[in-house]
Amino acid sequence: MRWKSDTYTGWGRALSAAGEKARPERQNHLAAIAASEPAPAIGNCRSYGDACLNDGGKAIDTTKLDRILSFDAETGMVEVEAGLTLGDLAKIYAPQGWLPAVMPGTGFATVGGAIAMDVHGKNHHNLGSFGQHVEDITLLQGDTERTITAKNKALFQATIGGLGQTGIISKATLRLQRCKGDVMMVTERRAEGWDQFLDLLDRSEATYTVGWIDATAQGDKLGRGILEEAETGAGLVPAPKKSKAIPTDAPGFALSKPIVRTFNEAYYRRVPASGRTVVKPIQDFFFPLDRIHDWNRLYGKRGFHQFQCVVPIAEAPALRAMLDLIAQSGLASPLAVLKRMGPGRAGYLSFPMEGYTLAVDFPNSTEARKLITRLEEMTTEASGRIYFAKDALATPERVQAMYPDLSRWQKEVAKADPGGALATDLIRRLKLRDPA
């Protein structure tokens, strides 16, 4: 297998890595690398920070390993290679009445990445996290291949949400969820402020629920936004619009305060005060930004950071205080999301907890980094946690306090990869594998 020098980034483009990458196209190629030159496995690098980076070292690009190995049309059980994307899985099986049980905000996430991050979606309050719907995982640990299930409790929980540190994920069997078809019936309604928004989230009985929040609104309008509730359906809708691409890095003024405020005002008012119901292709609901290839270039050549946290239900006032601080700063972009989460999580380092999660994008700047540091402090004070898939700035001390099962994860990782061959930049930055 040939190794080629490459420079690559996470989706946020604020951090980068230079090193050698291999791109195996067959399982035997991957097994040969794992046995002779083990290195972190990466997918489409949709993690925003440095979880997918190994600066100065090697990385194994698994995106060519994207085959469907078997499918049971009666049970929805599907075995796939780790490089298959969730978007492709949905595109193939939704017309047949099946969907991945949990899907994040991009269809470009690979199955291996979804397991390693234990991703969540717009239905977490109902179906929990991705890892709760994984039947088995095939791991390559040096020259050993092993398939693990929930019966291998400790290793299974260390692998799901485990940042790829227990072995190279080569294959997995997933339990798909029945759906009515590849159409989404989406009801949109305005929330005029924070209290109303939380009330709508708490009372929602929809299968899929997500909220866009105006991170620039202040005063009585603080926390205003749009709640989307959706169900799958069957029928005819216009074909999804053709994807567009951002050809070059946007100039700095593209996301200036006046432009963001103007955009947010227009976006909020696109939904009538009485609300509305629309029909969308399934991809447009689950992966709205995927229609704009390289949308991360809108933040300019310096890239961006996303802050995402979750706090317990009782700590909702702390989340409101964070949003107030964000609005006062004037640093946020239009991309801000508020969701209600249920208790479901599958791994020791899985992000979800029952509560509310807020995610906000910020163009990379000194001021934004300082603000995110303060937001992380407030998250810690509220007994919440931040999401490794989005993080690029946290410190070891703060993160280790957020994840009480860290020592259990460390124990399994030490057995699975004693030489530290699978460590990434995020692992080193946060000293996750270092005993307390």
What would you say about this model in short?
With about 425 residues, this protein is an alpha+beta fold. The chain has a domain at about 185-400: 2-Layer Sandwich (Alpha-Beta Plaits), CATH 3.30.70.
Question: Can you put this structure into words, describing what you see?
Answer:
- This protein is an alpha+beta fold.
- It has a domain at 183-399: Alpha-Beta Plaits, CATH 3.30.70.2520.
- Helix content is 27%, strand content 26%.
- The chain is built from 13 helices and 21 strands.
- An eight-stranded antiparallel β-sheet has the order 16-12-14-13-19-20-18-21.
- Strand 8 and strand 9 (144-148) form a beta hairpin.
- Helix 5 (153-159) packs across helix 12 (406-416) and helix 9 packs antiparallel against helix 10.
- The chain is globular.
- The model has no long low-confidence stretch (mean pLDDT 96).
Q: Return the CATH topology of the domain at 183-399.
A: Alpha-Beta Plaits
Task: List unreliable stretches of 5+ residues.
Answer: none
Radius of gyration, whole Å: 21 Å
Strand adjacency order, main sheet: 16-12-14-13-19-20-18-21
Helical proportion, percent range = 25-40%
Major beta sheet, specifics? Answer: 8 strands, antiparallel
Distance between the termini: 38 Å
Structure characteristics:
Alpha-Beta Plaits; five-stranded antiparallel sheet; single chain; eight-stranded antiparallel sheet; 436 residues; alpha+beta
